[in-house]
Specification:
365 residues, Naphthalene 1,2-dioxygenase Alpha Subunit, Chain A, domain 1, six-stranded antiparallel β-sheet, globular
Length: 365
């Protein structure tokens, strides 16, 4: 029996029949030739998030972002009128790049014929508008070079059911065993154009069962779910309509996939994460994880944020620990097709969408 309500069709997969139900090939993650097509079809033609406006706070300030998949770097600066502009990172006479802002996030697109950013991001992004992103300016950043295709790490973060198994050592006592035997189901899934989201229970703070957290987390009132005490700022109560779409009382976390390589994770206690996956080869990419909090007002606030940040690092290391082995296994082609379950529709949607971009590009060429 399902733990939470399902769509009228009976499952999330059936709710989106265009995804299909057959086993899925991961040839798109192990083919150098396919990667070259992805570079042209996707990364040279879709909106890419390269940072936030706070990274260029004053007139003349700037930051750069290397984008290996496009073979260039992007220079983002605040001009004399206070606007944000982007250029190719050439040291002499930079060429402008199309640049638009959504909720303080800076996006660039190398295709001048592409649709406007707002239309591209669609309803999922519109449902997040009004969240206090601009108030969460205390930032912690992590960066790692990973020996796998860029989509495989996105797959790892596109479902939550792995948590009690992969992160078993992070759960105190028999909490992991209980969660594993109970079974995991998310609260809600939603697909919108090339993008998608999953909404989950858990992630609430303070946890209802304090036996599942470590002593230091109980003392500091912080941990993987972030600082337990929610900041008192506008935009968190009530939440924008796109968060906790099922309006479930056990809601704790929403994860958004904005195609191609930008993910956002919003936590109930009042902070958020972003993930970026920048391909550098068919079997390598750069992962960036960034944590955003309301600026600390005391030493205690700062320590709570730092505990959340180092705890995130441990969880992220566990999440990516299997990726290089997964890449090697896939490249062996000992198994060519893999079944996906109802909680993996975002995985199926990501690979299907990427394939559609490649097919459309190949047809035009």
């Amino acid at each position: 029996m399902p733990h939470f309500p399902k769509p009228a069709e009976g499952s999330w997969t059936e709710h989106y029949p265009e995804l299909g139900t057959g086993p899925m090939s991961y040839e798109d993650s192990i083919s150098p030739e396919h990667y070259e097509l992805e570079r042209k079809a996707i990364f040279e033609r879709t909106w890419l998030n390269v940072g936030r406006v706070e990274q260029a706070p004053t007139v003349g300030s700037q930051f750069t972002k290397e984008i290996a998949a496009v073979g260039t770097s992007v220079k983002v600066l605040r001009d004399a009128d206070g606007g944000i502009r982007a250029f190719h990172g050439s040291p002499s006479g930079p060429v402008p790049i199309r640049c638009e802002i959504w909720e303080g996030f800076v996006f660039v697109n190398f295709d001048d014929a592409a649709e406007p950013l707002g239309e591209y991001l669609g309803g999922l992004a519109a449902g997040l508008e009004g969240y206090p992103f601009d108030r969460m300016t205390e930032v912690y950043r992590y960066r790692a070079e990973v020996g796998s295709n860029w989509k495989l790490y996105m797959d790892a973060f596109a479902e939550f059911y792995h948590a009690p198994v992969l992160h078993a050592k992070q759960y105190v006592g028999d909490e992991s065993r209980k969660l594993s035997s109970y079974g995991f189901e998310a609260l809600h899934y939603q697909l919108d154009g090339p993008h998608g989201m999953v909404s989950s229970w858990g992630g609430m703070a303070p946890p209802k069962d304090l036996s599942m957290v470590k002593p230091i987390e109980r003392v500091l009132r912080s941990g993987n779910f972030g600082p337990w005490d929610r900041p008192d700022i506008p935009g968190l109560d009530p939440l924008p309509p796109g968060l906790n779409p099922s309006r479930h009382k056990a809601w704790g976390i929403d994860s958004f996939v904005f195609f191609p390589n930008f993910m956002m994770v919003v936590w109930a206690p009042g902070w958020y994460l972003t993930y970026h996956y920048w391909p550098t080869a068919y079997n390598r990419h750069i992962f960036e994880g960034t944590l955003y909090f309301v600026p600390a007002r005391s030493a205690g606030d700062r320590i709570r944020q730092e505990l959340a940040a180092v705890t995130f690092k441990e969880f992220a290391l566990q999440d990516c620990n299997t990726l290089e082995a997964t890449q090697t296994m896939l490249e062996s082609r000992a198994v060519s097709y893999f079944p996906l379950n109802d909680q993996e529709i975002l995985l199926r949607h990501l690979h299907r969408t990427a394939g559609q971009y490649v097919t459309a590009y190949s047809g035009r060429e």
